[in-house]
């Protein structure tokens, strides 16, 4: 479960980092930060589905608890990575980073991160419902 959570985090984070760079440097200055996050979020969630799918079903179908644990581990590592980037790369304080989560577009991003955490469970439910997709 730890390895699955780390793998899931790494895949999504790598793509999200690239998207986030484009969003911050190009899209947000043109249309605003909130609109840019609203455009980026569905793309990141699609990446989350694509990353979770093979992790949940291989080498065998994860249990519900394993899917929850995988998402929780990935979420914890994601939040630690986001905090570290905010502090060390962008010079924010921890208090400033936490405050950014409650100011727009922070809540939108946080909602997306929570869906990211739930995605292994969502994918598992989909696979369990339609076994031919395994």
Can I get a quick summary?
The chain is mostly helical. 84% of the residues lie in helices and 0% in strands.
List keywords for this structure.
134 residues; 84% helix; mainly alpha
Structure in words:
With about 130 residues, this protein is mostly helical. Helix content is about 85%, strand content about 0%. The chain contains five helices and no strands. Helix 1 runs antiparallel to helix 2. It is globular. The model has no long low-confidence stretch (mean pLDDT about 95).
Low-confidence stretches: none
Beta percentage is under 5%
Q: How many distinct beta strands? A: 0
How would you sum up the global shape?
globular
The assigned structural class equals mainly alpha
Radius of gyration: 16 Å
How many helical stretches? 5
Largest sheet: none
H and E order: HHHHH
Portion of residues in helices?
Answer: over 70%
For the termini, the CA-CA separation is: 19 Å
On the 0 to 100 scale, the average pLDDT is 94
Secondary structure layout plus pairing:
Elements: H1 2-31, H2 33-57, H3 64-89, H4 94-100, H5 106-129
Helix pairs in contact: 1-2, 1-3, 2-5, 3-5
């Amino acid at each position: 479960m730890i390895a699955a959570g780390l793998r899931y985090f790494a895949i999504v984070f790598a793509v999200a980092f690239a998207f986030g760079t484009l969003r911050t440097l190009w899209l947000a200055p043109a249309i605003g930060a909130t609109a840019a996050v609203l455009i980026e979020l569905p793309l990141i969630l699609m990446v989350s589905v694509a990353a979770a799918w093979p992790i949940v079903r291989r080498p065998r179908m994860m249990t519900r608890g394993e899917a929850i644990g995988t998402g929780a581990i990935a979420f914890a590592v994601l939040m630690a990575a986001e905090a570290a980037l905010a502090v060390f790369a962008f010079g924010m304080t921890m208090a400033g980073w936490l405050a950014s989560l409650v100011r727009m577009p922070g809540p939108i991003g946080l909602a997306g991160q929570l869906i990211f955490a739930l995605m292994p469970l969502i994918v598992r439910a989909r696979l369990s419902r339609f076994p031919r997709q395994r």
